[in-house]
Amino acid sequence: MPRPGLDRHYQRETTMLKRLAFAALLVLVTALPARADSDGLMTFKLLTPEAALALAQATLADCRERGFQVAVAVVDRSGILQVLLRDRFAGPHTVATARRKAWTAASFRTDTLIMAESTQAGEVQSGVRFVPGALMVGGGVPVESAGSMVAAVGVSGAPGGQADDDCARVGIESIQDLLEF
Fold it and tell me: pTM, whole model, 2 decimals?
């Protein structure tokens, strides 16, 4: 004759054992690596601190030759600041502006002079102007090597985004031999 109390007890124990087995299996499966080979990894190039400094110095020197007092920021491919130089008479706003231009160029993987045009009001991409920290003003230029972005440079303080952009491009040209591999 079946006893109702024992049947319920047996069902609870069985349910608990099933849950425990499932939890153990879940822990085991998640603890194992997804793949044993390196296909799940990627490698990429970054500018060395020395190359980033050389880029910033060459950019600053070109702006000085043109008569501009500027700030120059170099960020890595993730937008993290590597170098920041400010000429002695560059305005206080140029530091943050140069960094934001470099970050924007790195983040969107395109130069900010193009972005200034393509994000105007009424354009399809106008909404990116509202991304916190982004600055759609010329002077932010990605630095590429072998088709891959390795850094970005931002310049602020020249009279207009085109002049900032021109200085940045001269700086990039000055380290071109370091970018080729």
Answer: 0.77
